[in-house]
Each structure stands twice: as C-alpha cells, then as structure tokens.
Amino acid sequence: MLFNAVLAVLMLPGVVAFVIPLAMLRPVNRLRPFTPAGIVVLVLGSTIVAWCVRDFLVSGKGTLAPWAPPQHLVRCGLYRYSRNPMYIGVLLIVSGWALGFHSVALGEYALLLAVGFHLRVVFGEEPWLARIHGATWEAYRTVVPRWLTVHYRRHL
C-alpha cells in the first residue's frame, strides 16, 4: 500500500502542484529570487498534503488514488476541520509558487484549480462518499465543513 501512496502522490498532487507550475514558468522566472513568503506558503501546503496522505494510509487504510482509495472514512487529523484539507494543501503549494515567483499566471492557475476542485468535490467525491459510507458520511458531513469556514462543530 505504501507503494500505491507514493505513486499516487507523485502522479496526482506531484504533477498538479509541482510539475505543471514549474513548467508554466518561463526559464527567466525560475532564475529570480524566490520570496520568503512563498517558501512559507509552499512548506505549509506540502506539510498539509503529507499529513493527509499519512492519515489516508494509517486511518483510512488506503491512498488518495482512485485505484486504491481509503477503506474507511478519514475523520482524524486535519479532516476534523475540513472535509478537503488535501485540496487546500495543493492550493497552498500552487499559491506558494505564485507568490514566491511573483507569477500572475500561477495565481490564475491556482484559481482555476480551486474551481475545478470544488466541482470535483461537489459532483464527484461527495456523492460517491455518500454511497460508500452512508450514515457515517452524513453524520460527518453535517459536522465538518467542506472547506475552511466558520462552522459550529457538533460532536461526531
């Protein structure tokens, strides 16, 4: 399962948050100094993604990959505060690149990703989770917000 987790990270957030943003930069942009604020945001996003991958492996007994999804609904760690912290982490990574390199194009890419992630969650992942996890998903969904919002927390 660890192999599937590593492969999934390289193929999914690895491509979306690292390969594509760096490919979007013109070579001259990659030679500019990277701002400290960009480093902070990039490291924060990377930490969030790593934490989520760990929780998927340990608590969910699976990976972020569609070919090896978690067997159990992950409700621990950052998933106590948001139903989608991994997407938030990826958006922070891309925003860190945009901020670090002062790239408007990467900022626009981050906005497009945010819209795409939202649509994927609402129309793909949430209906699937409702079918797979039933009442457990419904209870979790009523307590934990989709994104990071002010939300009254009831006990699970």
Largest sheet: none
Average pLDDT rating: 89
H/E element sequence: HHHHHH
Overall geometry: elongated
Put simply, the count of helices is 6
Rg value = 16 Å
What is the CA–CA distance across the termini?
Answer: 28 Å
Descriptive keywords:
single chain, 156 residues, mainly alpha
Explain this structure:
- This protein has 156 residues and is mostly helical.
- It has one domain (2-143).
- It is 68% helix and 0% strand.
- Helix 1 packs parallel to helix 2 (13-24), helix 2 (13-24) runs parallel beside helix 5 and helix 4 (36-58) runs antiparallel to helix 5 (85-101).
- The longest helix has 40 residues, at 104-143.
- The relative contact order is 0.15.
- The mean pLDDT is 89.
Topology:
Elements: H1 2-11, H2 13-24, H3 27-30, H4 36-58, H5 85-101, H6 104-143
Helix pairs in contact: 1-2, 2-5, 4-5, 5-6
Give the structure's gist in a few sentences:
With 156 residues, this protein is mainly alpha-helical. 68% of the residues lie in helices and 0% in strands.
